[in-house]
Amino acid sequence: MSKKRQYLISFLLVCFVGGLSFTLSDLIGYRVVALLLMMSVSLLAMFFDITAVLLAALLSAFIWDFFFIPPRFTFSIGQTEDRLMLLMYFVISLLNAVLTFKIRQVQKQARLKEEKEKSLQLYDTLITSLSHQLKTPIATIIGASDNLLSREVNISDNNKELLVEEISLAALRLNQQVSNLLSISRIQSGFVRPHKDWCDIHELVYNMLKKIDIGLSSFDQGFDTCYASFIQDRLCHDGTCTVEFS
């Protein structure tokens, strides 16, 4: 909420409480009005910025002095007791506003710290998972390349083709993991926005099976509104994990 809006709401609330108290001043007395005005300032301190609350406290003190403390409709105060009460009211209102604001700041910092810790835990979990996903194809590429380049081992043409296929498949998987990392970075940066469109579930599954290089199965499903690229990546990841650990 903007500061101008906070100032306006604070002004209107204090004036409303002051006007309502003025109509009931003969019944409740001017000392009870101070409690009502202080309560309104306390409510504002729970939600608004410190400057708006301080201005509300200052305004409420002037309203109580001018409209309620005898003699009315003047800033002069007849009795010493009322002067002391006005001073104490103003000090207590300011302290209440400042302390409430500080409590809100401490709670906000605690929430931010907790959210940051959760984000770090999620980030560590993600990095650990991706580290394993990246190490597997890299190890496959290194192992197959060493076998192909080794002069001490005689490899048949058929085995060479198999090693080349392993390198190609591992490279595709490594490229997929890098693409996933880039997609995550774009999503976190806010550059990617979901775009709803009609898509065919058969096409999604076909693209997923094509990526992980397994046979295509038929699915008797219809059309649905979905985020095609996200679902395709999710299915591709699930299918890859199924093939690797089955």
Description of the structure:
- Pfam families: DUF4118, HisKA.
- It catalyses: ATP + protein L-histidine = ADP + protein N-phospho-L-histidine.
- It is an enzyme of class 2 (transferase).
- It is found in: Membrane.
- This is histidine kinase.
- The protein has about 250 residues and is mainly α.
- Among the domains are: about 110 residues, no CATH class; about 50 residues, no CATH class.
- Helix content is about 80%, strand content about 5%.
- It contains 8 helices and 2 strands; from the N terminus they run ααααααβαβα.
- It has a two-stranded antiparallel ribbon.
- Helix 7 packs across helix 8.
- The chain is rod-shaped and about 110 Å long.
- The two termini are about 55 Å apart.
